[in-house]
């Protein structure tokens, strides 16, 4: 079936992500962006929903304290979204797509099994994610969220040692400070391995053909093989600070911006 697309955003959306949201709509999906504050300039047809009902803003304080003005610090948004997507899965809300996923065609999923793809040779990506509400990964995150310190039982040995040393030095007693993506792709990979569902993972190029090489998207190139490849469903783009730059002539970004303007 063709699911509803759901995601979370905190702050202002740049022009790249607005283009990606338009592509998701054009592929025939209903698209809902959850946020704590209204988001200005959303493409017509994109629904802006209240995030508090899915995961309270106060949960962010388990990750790290806010700044003096109440705003979130450095990694908080990324890690909060790692938990938010799992709460959406628990609610059977739909297919999670990061707002910087450009869809080239509709996504079809089987509601009874996970939907994700390899981001690297040994790591799943979580920019494209669907899990049934009773999936072991969803349940593992649910148990984790009951903790105050948010220490995963699937934490790799190296991360456990790093965390133990940080605590001994008095540097931090929060595992969220160990690594930016501690609750993201590495966690998804470890839990999928534990659950025996890695076999469902799509090939890397299904969604991550340009993920690690943003120049393939932003700089002039012969991108015709990418948009002609039937195995490529969409493109997760890592903007690396280029999300508000105007598209460069001859780039895949220029092609996308014209197609989904």
State the main characteristics.
9 helices, two-stranded antiparallel ribbon, alpha/beta, 261 residues, globular
Describe this structure in words.
With 261 residues, the chain is of the alpha/beta class. 31% of the residues lie in helices and 14% in strands. The chain has 9 helices and 8 strands. The chain has a 6-stranded mixed beta sheet, sandwiched between helices. The protein has a two-stranded antiparallel sheet with strand order 5-8. Strand 6 (115-120) and strand 7 form a beta hairpin. Helix 3 (76-90) crosses helix 4. The longest helix has 15 residues, at 76-90. The chain is globular, with a radius of gyration of 18 Å. The mean pLDDT is 92.
Tell me the layout of helices and strands.
Layout: E1 5-8, H1 15-26, E2 31-35, E3 47-50, H2 60-63, H3 76-90, E4 95-97, E5 101-103, E6 115-120, E7 123-130, H4 136-145, H5 157-169, H6 185-195, H7 215-218, H8 224-228, E8 234-236, H9 252-259
Parallel strand pairs: 1-2, 1-4, 2-3
Antiparallel strand pairs: 4-7, 5-8, 6-7
- With helices defined by DSSP (H or I, 4 residues minimum), what is the helix count? 9
- Spatial order of the strands in the main sheet? 3-2-1-4-7-6
Main beta sheet strand tally, sense and closure: 6 strands, mixed
* Strand composition percent: 5-15%
Query: Considering DSSP H and I runs of 4 or more, what fraction of the residues is helical?
Result: 25-40%
Shape, principal axes of CA atoms: globular
**Distance separating the two termini:** 27 Å
| Tally of DSSP β-strands | 8
């Amino acid at each position: 079936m063709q699911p509803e697309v759901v995601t979370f955003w905190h702050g202002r959306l740049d022009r790249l992500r607005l283009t990606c949201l338009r592509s998701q709509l054009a592929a025939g999906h209903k698209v809902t962006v959850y946020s704590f504050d209204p988001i200005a300039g959303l493409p017509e047809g994109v629904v802006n929903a209240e995030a508090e009902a899915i995961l309270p803003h106060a949960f962010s304080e388990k990750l790290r304290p806010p700044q003096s003005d109440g705003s979130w610090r450095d990694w908080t948004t990324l890690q909060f979204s790692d938990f938010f997507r799992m709460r959406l899965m628990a609610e059977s809300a739909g297919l999670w797509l990061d707002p910087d996923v450009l869809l080239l065609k509709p996504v079809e999923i089987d509601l009874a099994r996970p939907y994700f793809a390899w981001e690297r040779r040994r790591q799943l990506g979580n920019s494209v994610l669907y899990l049934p509400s009773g999936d072991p990964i969803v349940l593992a995150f649910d148990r984790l969220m009951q903790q105050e310190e948010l220490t995963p039982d699937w934490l790799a040995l190296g991360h456990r040692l790093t965390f133990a040393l940080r605590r001994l030095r008095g540097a931090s007693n929060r595992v969220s400070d160990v690594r930016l993506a501690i609750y993201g792709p590495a966690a998804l990979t470890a839990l999928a391995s534990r659950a025996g569902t890695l076999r469902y993972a799509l090939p890397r190029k299904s969604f991550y053909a340009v993920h690690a090489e943003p120049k393939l998207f932003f700089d002039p190139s012969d991108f015709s093989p990418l948009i002609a490849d039937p195995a490529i469903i969409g493109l997760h783009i890592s903007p690396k600070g280029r999300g508000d730059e105007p598209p460069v002539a001859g780039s895949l970004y220029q092609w996308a911006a014209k197609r989904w303007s």
